[in-house]
Amino acid sequence: MTPMFRTTLIILSVALASVGPAWAAGDDWHYPAIEGYGGIKSLPHAANQPSVEAEHKAVFDVTRAAKRPDQLNPGLERVARAVNVFASAGVPAEKLDFVVVVHGPATPGILNDAQYEKQFGQANPNTALIAALRKAGVTLHVCGQALAKHAFDQSWVNNEVDVALSALSDLVIFQSRGYAVVPQ
């Protein structure tokens, strides 16, 4: 490698490294309805935009746990992303009817902070996200059968989450009411 070529590579590398943060600054994620959760890119010219007049009904089937106890539940974060996507398209909050059904390995993510701390040695990282979802009008259910399977008392559930008979019955009931089922 010639000294001139090496110098050119070094200059090019330095130039790209200094421009990199500028490119990254253009990659801002947006949170039009739920600040700090479920970041999205606004795409006003993308195909198949949601109608701002229609009611959008979905039930989110959340079964997967976070990889570590200090991480947000990916299914709950996905629901926040869905709310933000619809909000970015101009759909008013009153036109969204979103329900979350938590069960299986995801069940511990809806415990209140005191019980989560007993289980995992720390406050529940999902508490603020659950509150933000509720504030955005999302209904949250946890499967009563999953609570029993995990030996969790119903009183241990976050106050923002309702206990359902079962995820199986919830999913059937909401689908029969015209809700789109969104698997995790």
Mean pLDDT over the full residue set: 89
Amino-to-carboxy terminus distance: 52 Å
**Largest β-sheet summary:** 5 strands, parallel
Number of H/I helices: 6
| Rg, Cα atoms, Å | 21 Å
Helix content: 25-40%
In what order do the strands lie side by side in the largest sheet? 4-3-2-1-5
Low-confidence stretches: 4-25
Structural class of the helix and strand makeup?
alpha/beta
Shape: globular
> Helix-strand pattern, N to C?
HEHEHHEHEHE
Give the tally of β-strands. Answer: 5
β-sheet strand percentage = 5-15%
What's this entry about, in short?
By secondary structure, this protein is of the alpha/beta class. It has six helices and five strands.
